[in-house]
Write a structure and sequence with these properties.
Elements (H helix, E strand, L loop, with lengths): L8 H4 L18 E2 L11 H9 L13 H11 L6 E4 L2 H12 L5 E5 L5 H8 L3 E5 L8 H6 L5 E7 L11 H10 L5 E5 L15 H6 L4 E6 L12 E4 L2 H10 L7 H12 L1 H24 L3 E3 L5 E5 L3 H13 L2 E2 L1 E2 L8 E5 L3 H16 L2
């Protein structure tokens, strides 16, 4: 008998997210520079806290991640009741989409924005709408031009992934002021801790200035080096936070993740070390790769975007790197097939990558 049970049509329109590879067939020593993970790893205090939590594995975690919310509130001067924690900020992206959009609605984002926004739109039956960019940078006017009566959410990563480009706070404010009040602006600050620009803001203050119309997303996966534990958080109005609580899972942030996150966000010394490492080696990578004739986009994250003369050459470069045990991120699904995104690594890995690309480009 053939089953007539079928998934909803909009679910089948989703192309699953393509994560950065972690292995290369036939290569034993692999250096992963594809997923924007912290090259310094987590804080020693976070590791110790995670190990200490192993004594509690038989118990369910506290459901609201209270200790994380309180630590974040103390660190940033926030209201803990307006913070929602989830198993990574991507889960919050999905929750927001489910909460505020559905069939017949539209979710707007920038053309080269994080692919999770498109997936979130399709998963709730909404139409994903992408706005063209200017020089791989979010164009506020292009976004505004595509706002319609059906637009419910606008996702904006700042800095953006995978381009690394960044908008000043004045442009974000202009965007919010020109958006209808019926549109929720979601500011994704996954890479906020790496930005060193006087005119930048992750947008936490905008949550108060535009109550109910702005949500800020942050993560422990990048500068804090806790990607494996999956901890993300949002800051919003209390009403919006309560709406998200109605949808989220009951025990989604484990006890190990919660205790490690608290230790990480309070270890400012390690956070500063990670930031300083990135501030040294990201410009170095940009310069060295630019000297090879690659087109480098100014990045404000913990990665660089390298453009090649064609998609064919980018594919060949990727193969050369992988054959020598270095994995970077191809970006064909972002419409950037001629580019590779390269995570800033430790010194040894950065130098190896540059050496391999020098070898490759010498043959071109």
């Amino acid at each position: 008998m053939t089953s007539t049970v079928k998934p909803l049509s909009h679910v089948m329109d989703i192309e699953p997210y393509l994560p950065g590879d972690s292995a290369v067939e036939g290569v034993t020593r692999v250096i992963k520079m594809s997923s924007n993970e912290s090259p310094l790893g987590p804080s020693p205090a976070a590791k110790q806290a995670a190990e200490g939590a192993l004594a509690e594995l038989e118990r369910y975690p506290e459901s609201s991640a209270r200790i994380v919310r309180e630590a974040l509130a103390e660190r940033y001067g926030l209201d803990a009741l307006r913070i929602v924690c989830e198993a990574g900020s991507e889960q919050l992206i999905n929750l927001i989409a489910r909460c505020y959009a559905g069939p017949g609605d539209e979710i707007l984002f920038s053309a080269h924005g994080f692919v999770a926004y498109k997936i979130a739109a399709l998963s709730c039956g909404a139409k994903p709408v992408s706005a063209p960019e200017t020089n791989l940078t979010t164009d506020v006017d292009a976004l505004l031009a595509l706002v319609s009566e059906r637009t419910r959410i606008l996702f904006l990563a700042n800095p953006n992934n995978p381009t690394g480009t960044c908008l000043p706070v004045a442009e974000i404010t202009r965007l919010r002021e020109k958006l209808p009040e019926s549109v929720l602006l979601v500011l994704d600050g996954a890479y906020a801790e790496y930005v060193d620009k006087e005119d930048y803001s992750a947008g936490l203050e905008m949550v108060t200035e535009y109550p109910g119309n702005v949500v800020v997303l942050r993560t422990f996966s990048k500068i804090y080096g806790l990607a494996a534990l999956r901890v993300g958080w949002s800051y919003s109005s209390r009403a919006l936070a309560m709406a998200l609580h109605r949808l989220r899972g009951v025990f989604t942030v484990s006890t190990i993740a919660q205790k490690a996150a608290v230790a990480a966000v309070t270890d400012l010394e390690h956070e500063n070390l990670a930031r300083e490492h990135n501030a040294r080696w990201r410009p170095w990578l940009n310069q060295k790769l630019s000297e090879l004739g690659l087109t480098m986009t100014e990045s404000h994250g913990n990665f660089v975007l390298a453009g090649f003369a064609s998609q064919e050459i980018a594919t060949e470069a990727d193969f050369h790197l992988r054959s020598n045990g270095v994995i970077t991120r191809t970006l064909r699904e972002y419409g950037l097939g001629d580019c590779l995104r390269i995570t800033v690594g430790v010194e040894e890995h950065n130098r190896l990558l540059v050496g391999l690309l020098q070898e490759f480009m010498a043959g071109k």
